[in-house]
Amino acid sequence: MKPAPFAYAKARSVAHAIELLAHDDARLLAGGQSLIATLNMRLSHPALLVDLNGVAGLDRIASKNGHLELGALVRHAQAERSAEVARGAPLIALALPHIGHPAIRNRGTIGGSLAFADPAAELPACLVALAGELDISGANGQRTIRADDFFKGLFETALAPRDVLTAIRVPAATAETRVGFAEFARRHGDYAIVGLAACARAESKRLGDLRLAYFGVGATPVRARRAERALAEGDLGAAVGALAQDLDPPSDVHATGAVKTHLAGVLLRRVARQLGQPS
Ligand SMILES: Cc1cc2nc3c(=O)[nH]c(=O)nc-3n(C[C@H](O)[C@H](O)[C@H](O)COP(=O)(O)OP(=O)(O)OC[C@H]3O[C@@H](n4cnc5c(N)ncnc54)[C@H](O)[C@@H]3O)c2cc1C
Questions:
Q1: What is the model's pTM?
Q2: What letter would DSSP give residue 169?
Q3: Ligand 1 center to residue 111 CA distance, Å?
Q4: pLDDT tens across 88-118, in order?
Q5: Does residue 1 register a pLDDT over 80?
Q6: Considering the domain 61-171, what is its CATH architecture?
Q7: Helix axes 225-232, 257-275, angle to 10 degrees
Q8: How far apart are the first and last CA of the chain?
Q9: Architecture of domain 7-51
Q10: What are the pocket residues of ligand 1 if the criterion is a CB atom closer than 6 Å to any ligand atom?
């Protein structure tokens, strides 16, 4: 199928993009890897596409004040090759190769993935596990939102219609940082049926600030808080057992909710081993 007719404008700056978004039914275009597919299937038919790709400065990766910052237009492939990401955000580095295929990662952007907020996507869960933040510019100025408050529902975020996500920030990894990532997909590159992103700080006998963020088990990334408490104390069996209370995944064509909960336990055992290793 072909998309319904739409107008196209190339934004010169973030401010220009916000101005263009004032048009009725305008939509931002970043890597186009999700948006163009929805246009072609006529699942969405915006009147105007506002292309962000020419906006300078949104594709930077920078270490600042103990944090790693990635501009919204950083491509998945660019982040995958970045030594700064490998060093400062090893969880994101582990997750990136699971996103689609090289052709998709060459165009798809960090900002597009987070703004699209697919419940089975890797990066939203990573950002929640890392207690990251998102910088947003909109008609009323700039604001920063915690990842915990950004994902609101199925493909729904805290972004308003005239908002542009400009960058994300995560605390830079230190020698004590421990991360783990695992997902179960039918084939490598498919969206995950269930996935888990985890981050913690190694302490003498336990894991501090442990965050387990599952994806593919609900409308948004889901923290497994009871499992976090048990695993932080080193009780993996109790952590796996707690998932039945932490998670309530819906059944779909790929798996029943019960199978997904079982898979969540399998992934937790894998990730627990990774958390025992220096990242
Ligand atoms: C075959 C295939 C397989 C894929 N597999 C995976 C996978 O396994 N895991 C995964 O996570 N993803 C997967 N993807 C999606 C891919 O990661 C996309 O790159 C991503 O979802 C969207 O990023 P984009 O830059 O292409 O955004 P676009 O498609 O350009 O935009 C997506 C949405 O986000 C909005 N948007 C984009 N940028 C911004 C911004 N800066 N501020 C505000 N709103 C913005 C757009 O308006 C649009 O609504 C797959 C895609 C395809 C085609």
A1: 0.97
A2: E
A3: 8
A4: 999 999 999 999 999 999 999 999 999 999 9
A5: no
A6: 2-Layer Sandwich (3.30)
A7: 30
A8: 45
A9: 2-Layer Sandwich (3.30)
A10: 27-35, 37, 52, 72, 99-100, 104, 108-109, 111-113, 115-116, 118, 121-123, 159, 164-165, 191
